[in-house]
């Protein structure tokens, strides 16, 4: 086991112990601090954990956000909705 994999595992276990989760938010546009706070509070209620948010911008989403928290992915983007609609229409 390499030192880097030990460090990754340690951070994962520490986050579990501290009841904290890292959430990666990809949005079509840059989020302001008020939007980040509102999102963090909603996620804190839903996941019952402290939330640490990192954000990135992907204009191809058209609108909305994609949330990644561990193994959980919530796709609320316009692009994702259009893809699901396309799949439903061609099925």
UniProtKB/TrEMBL annotation:
Transmembrane stretches, start-end: none
GO MF annotations, alphabetized: proton-transporting ATP synthase activity, rotational mechanism
Entry keyword Nucleotidyltransferase: no
Cellular component, GO annotation: membrane
Broad class of the protein's primary localization: membrane
PROSITE patterns in UniProt: ATPASE_DELTA
Protein name, as recorded: Uncharacterized protein
Organism field: Vreelandella sulfidaeris
